[in-house]
Structure formats: structure tokens, C-alpha cells
Amino acid sequence: MTGEIKGPGLKGLSPMALAGVSCDICHSISGVTHGQTPTGEPENGSFILSPGKDTPQGPKLVKRGPYAPSDGCGMGFHECLESPLHLKADLCASCHQVYHYEKHFPIEATYSEWKKGPYAQKGIHCQDCHMVEIETFIRSADTFTKPERKEYRHYFNGANYLLYYLAEAAAIKAGDKELATNLKTKFDMAVKRLQMAADLELYPVYRAGSLAEIKVRVRNIRAGHNLPTSLTNIREMWLEVAATDASGKKVIISGGLDNKGSLMPDTRVFNSDGMGDNFHFAVDPWVITAFSRHDTIPPKGYRDVYFGIAPQKGQGVITLEARLRYRQADQKIAEKLLASVPAGMNLEAIYGIKKVPTLPVIDMAKKSAKIRTRK
């Protein structure tokens, strides 16, 4: 809008531009243009920014919030206005619904996943889960009860723990212990949200009296959108399942990581595969015009995954262990992305790292069971 950004890279940008999406952005939004997009839905920043107004005395800054302003709001620096929009998911939709710039394919569909699900029907919006403490989030998700005004915080905490992980490293590098501690707290909060979002159930499947399969049910118990969401062609949520017989022999093994950080072949992964105009596999968001595979779990929904097991002789017991695991990207993709950071962004100088670190893997849910080989 100001013409400050000339192209790729960070060179020459002011501190304000380098701050990214700051408080000022959301509190300057005066409306949305969702119905005017090519799809008639929110997409790609379909909001109206009104940071101020012209008056006979000169420009006047205006900031908007969800409640009627109290006396002294703005402290003379800006005017305060009440905005019901700031209580709704429509405020978040403009940025959390991303379409291909030309084909208008939904690469990120977090808002529409919410809108088509039970949380929208029950009046639970993004702010009711992502701007509150963990305990309040659990209550909102379990009972569809909106938080009280005093319970909201400017956390905006979700599953993007990698940002906190890297930002903490940058704070440590800069010697800011207070900020590093704060970011570690936010990292832990993001991990906890992931761990509260899903659950596993284990069931034996018998045929002719013998154990034939193990059914693992993966449930989205608290996320108001699909699991995973956002850039689902990048995100990885998968099942790791291991089963041993009485002698300690592995009879099922699936979902492990190799020494390069890649998932084993045939791992049951919940995410998407992107493809471009030529129907070939694609990762870059500006190339993806469709999904060749899209497998995510809707709010309050589930997916059943079956693991076959070789016939076991006689009566015995199988020890089964299952984990639902999550990371924000495949290790190779992360290395590719971070190797392409804008010019002027020195990873060693900022974060103290000389190479892309191993991405943290979060265990969202764990279950174990002893299962008889004969019914």
C-alpha cells in the first residue's frame, strides 16, 4: 500500500514492515469483502483496512475492538470504536482461507472447514478457542460454551509451534531471557492444544474366531476445523503403530521415521497431496491447483484405519501401542523452505543455527492395549 516493498527479500524494509502482522492490522479492519471475491467466499486478505480518517484538524487514527470503548480508550493517541466483527470468525476468515491466485482453488480452507461443521452451528468462533487458556479452550470445545469476556487473551495460539520454537532460539541468541521464557510458554501451550485435539481408540477384529486385524479409530475431539488444517499438503499427521507377540516378535510395525527424518513407506498419513496444471505432484502453494489426495478429519469426526495381522497359532496375547504424531512439514520440505529464505535473512545470525534443525514431532495421542489372538 505504501510502495515500500519492491520485491522478494527484506532489504530496505522499515522496522514497521519487518514487524509483520502486528496488532495494528486486526484493529484497523473495518469490514470484509468476502462476497466480492471470485468465489464469493473469504479469501486472500478480503478485508478493509481503515487505520484512520481525515478530520478538519488533520488525520485521526482509529482502532476497533469487540466491545464498547471505556473512558480514556486510546489515551488521546487514537479513537476507539466498537466492532461486532471482531467477535466473529469472519474477521479471521480473510487470512485463513487461501486460494490459488488464478484458479481459485482452496489451498487452505480452515474457515470453510469450521463454517460447515458443528462449532459454527453452535456459535463457537475462532476466538473462543485460540484466544483463551487451555482449560477454557477445552470447555468451549467440549460443551460449546462461549468464554466470558474476562477469559479472552491475545494469545492467538494454535498448532504452529515451530514459530515459537524458532523465535525462542532467536531470543536466546539475542540474550533476551524474558522473551525466550515467554516463547517457551507459548510453545508448550501450542503443544498442549495439539494433545487436547485428538484421541485414539483401539479395537480387535476377529474372523472365524482368530485375530485378523487391528482397527485404530482416530477422532477429532476438539478442533473446530479439520485435523490437520492450513497447508495440508505440507502438514503431516500420522499413525505410528507397533504390535508384538508374547515372544517379543514384531507382528505390526508402521509409521516410523528413517535416519533422514522421512516417514516409512505405507505410513497412514492424514494430509493432502497437491498437484499442478499438468496433474503432477506439486508442493509450492502458487503451483497447486488441485489435490490428488485429500484426507483430513472434520470437527467431531473420525477415521478408521485397519492393520492386518498374520494368523497367530493358538491362544496368546498381542501387545499393541499406537501414537498419533504431528509435525508441520516433512524434514526434506522444511530444509527446502528454510534454504530459500529471503535475502538478508541470516539464519545463523538470527537463530544461531547453521543448518535446518530436526523438526519437532509432537505426540498428539497415545494408546496401548493387550489383545487376545483368539476370541
Query: How many domains make up the 3D coordinates?
Result: 2
Q: Which residue ranges are poorly predicted, with pLDDT under 50 across at least 5 consecutive positions?
A: none
Question: Mean pLDDT, rounded to whole units?
Answer: 92
- What is the succession of H and E elements? HHEEEEEHEEHHHHHHEEEEEEEEEEHHE
Query: Helix amount, in percent?
Result: 10-25%
Distance between the termini: 69 Å
Q: How many beta-strand elements?
A: 18
Radius of gyration: 24 Å
Beta-strand percentage? 25-35%
Subunit organisation of the chains: single chain
Please report the number of helical segments.
Answer: 11
Question: Could you explain the architecture of this structure?
Answer:
With 375 residues, the chain is of the alpha+beta class. The chain folds into 2 domains: 21-111, no CATH class; 201-372, no CATH class. Helices cover 23% and strands 29% of the residues. The protein contains 11 helices and 18 strands. It has helices at 15-18, 23-26, 89-93, 110-115, 118-121, 127-130, 134-143, 161-174, 177-197, 331-338, 347-351, and strands at 29-32, 47-49, 52-55, 58-65, 79-82, 97-99, 106-109, 198-207, 210-220, 236-244, 250-254, 269-270, 272-275, 281-282, 290-294, 302-308, 317-327, 362-372. The strands form 6 sheets. Strands 10, 11, 12, 17 and 18 form a 5-stranded antiparallel sheet that branches. Strand 13 (272-275) and strand 14 form a beta hairpin. The chain is globular. The mean pLDDT is 92.
